[in-house]
């Protein structure tokens, strides 16, 4: 395979006029509560919105930049989830097509986009999670969700697959960027919130911000506590996010970010299918006996400095993240890690040969080390030392995107990324050292046709590459970590879609097909031990992503009111191709159909009422042999809110009203019929629950 310097040279040589994040006019405001997450295409002017700043544009500008991409990208304004129990990523993203987001317990969940990490039974793989454009994942690509506080988030942008290239992401799942509020983009200078509900759940949150001439500052803090629906699932979360910006001149601005995230979460473990459906609140025996838990203390410090030039804009991101993990499971996992990086990016909009052109060129270097120790688990405390290693990861990346408008309504898109990823591991107990290097060159080509402001059609083809993380490469054998060399997962993805709006509604539709080689799949032998990973042969991930809304009625009982029907449908068809063992079986892990239907009545600035129906017609296969699957289910919920006075709202969020017993997520196994294979891999979904809260914005 060509070396990284040669790939980088080829990429720089190819930096011809092309795609950038569009510098378009601000977008229209997001739909009212209950109207769904269908995209609203950019308008020419927006009045009365927070103006943003050089380092963090206004929410309207953020939306416009996202929705000008020739791809199935999605934008979510925090106003869409501010009056509901927004605790984790599912609460923010459950109405985004193409995403499978299911809870296990607390903030631990499964996040999969187009089959990324489809069989990952723990934490995150295959999706780059960013906060303010800066990676949350560790340097090896692994990650979790504990530092994302929905109450600190101002907007979310989802970039499936190669569509995350503008940030440097090129994995199968793509990227999700959570942008926190600044004093310029916050809904109000001060926001206070209190809520409580079933299972001993309560949360307090406060946010304060202020602009001081050329400076601005914001601080947000949340405390969440719950006894948990299941036994041994008590959790406490403390999350602080803050930023300070300073405008040095009309052309230069710098912004510093700081965050502290403390997690204390007991683990109830997975169950057999019978247990999950008949005794779902029970915890696994091993989880109780070993007092299994996940305790994390993390700190994040970052900076973005933006310089507006006569020729474009330069943004330079830098960051350092410290993470301490104490994780008693089958053994006590005791880790202390540090990640750091720098990412410069230049964007420019100009005219070439009379044609409008937009270009972005960037690079990233980020790295990290992690001291990884393991001990015998003595009821949650450290026993004898069993493993002592150091993990080190380094990543070198160059990327570009280019958009050339060959006509006023037709844009040609081209892009590419060159990368080199180094992974090193030292076993300090034996003195053995292991390493792997992954090089790659991932191109992208697409078209965007926008015949009218409110209508878009797009198509693109991209190449993605997923590199194994240390959880993949260090697999547990005899309760010891053993280095397993794995190949990178590669895929070509073709995407075709459209989005638009009309007077009474809108739609967002995308079809995709990924041909994969070396897809990283996992299998579980013992639910208490992290799953093993292997490279499959040829596999196919294909599906449909749809979100649509339609106003059934308007101005019925009051001026401006509306009754809106919303529908989100994600179809997953993921299969082996002529596999020697599994033939053309479906890949285990995700259900084929996930649907969410809402019917909302809203009187703007007064109240809204929105029942919701979640339907999974067929449960996911748990084994690659396709002999054991989760149950199908229909789940009902209700959201409501009322404005008591300007800036003061009271809301209710009722879930699983029929107390349906169902499986929300699972880990994967090879063959449920095989001797010695445990089928205790199912996570029961939460039972009937009710949460009420109030929010003050002033």
UniProtKB/TrEMBL annotation:
InterPro entries: Beta-barrel_TonB, Beta-barrel_TonB_sf, Plug_dom, Plug_dom_sf, TonB-dep_rcpt-like. Keywords: Cell outer membrane, Membrane, Receptor, Signal, TonB box, Transmembrane, Transmembrane beta strand, Transport. It is found in: Cell outer membrane. GO terms for cellular component: cell outer membrane. Residues 66-175 form the TonB-dependent receptor plug domain. Its main location: membrane. GO terms for molecular function: siderophore uptake transmembrane transporter activity. Residues 1-22 form the signal peptide. The keyword Glycosyltransferase does not apply. One of its GO terms (biological process) is siderophore transmembrane transport. Residues 196-657 form the TonB-dependent receptor-like beta-barrel domain. It is a multi-pass membrane protein. PANTHER family: TONB-DEPENDENT OUTER MEMBRANE RECEPTOR, TONB-DEPENDENT RECEPTOR YNCD-RELATED. Belongs to the TonB-dependent receptor family. This is TonB-dependent receptor.
